[in-house]
Amino acid sequence: MNNALLWLGRGAGVIGALVCAVAIVTRVAGKYWLADFQVGTLLLAGSAAMIAGCFCFLWMLTQRPG
User: Fold this and answer.
1) What would the pLDDT profile of 33-59 be if each residue is shown by its tens digit?
2) What are the DSSP calls for 9-34, one per residue?
């Protein structure tokens, strides 16, 4: 279970960071829309994915014996 939470947390964090980076670069380029999504929505989705990754890591840490 811990190994799955670790990889789920890492995956969510990396995907979230990439989505945030794309949203930031798109907005700095002066665009408000990307693939029919507002850039702010993409930034929010990336933040939510990173938070989900943090929760997975926290859950994994609380499951450790000790």
Assistant:
1) 999 999 999 999 999 999 999 999 999
2) HHHHHHHHHHHHHHHHHHHHTT-SEE
Looking at residue 64, its pLDDT comes to 77
Residue 57 near residue 9 (C-beta atoms within 8 A)? yes
Per the CB < 8 A criterion, the answer to whether 12 and 53 are in contact is yes
Tokens of 18: 């990439």
> Cα separation of 25 and 21, whole Å?
6
Return d(Cα 22, Cα 9) in angstroms, integer: 20
Environment class of residue 9 by beta-carbon count within 10 Å: exposed (0-12), middle (13-18) or buried (19+)? buried
Name the phi and psi angles at 7, rounded to 5: -70, -35
Q: Structure pTM? A: 0.89
